[in-house]
Amino acid sequence: MILATDYPFLDIVGTMLVFFFWVMWFWCLILVLSDVFRRKDLSGWAKAGWATLMVFIPWLGVLVYLIAHGKDMGERRLDDMADQQARFDAHIRQVATSDSTAEIARAKELLDSGAIDASEYDILKRKALAA
Length: 131
Prior knowledge:
Blueprint: H1 9-38, H2 44-56, H3 58-113, H4 118-130
Helix pairs in contact: 1-2, 1-3, 2-3, 3-4
């Protein structure tokens, strides 16, 4: 049975800190490598070079990349998020307007052709606006 005296509190805190920094290191490595492979201005050879440097000399590779391209890395992330938000907003606008507008337009065509009367048109219009 393991007792508290076998593993003191400061050893637990130290282990937690080591684990925290280990996770933080891998997160940083993943962010930098994903930025390298996301870049469109680097050739395949340059990407392979950065990846090789980060695999074989990880601390030096990541630090050099962050020093050389850290500001650009942040700008690329912001641009990607803005593009994602714009695409999402455009999709929401397209979905929100096209379905109800198209249904009302079809109902109006049916009303104009005489296939339905005004009360049926109002029912279809209310359904389209409620959805």
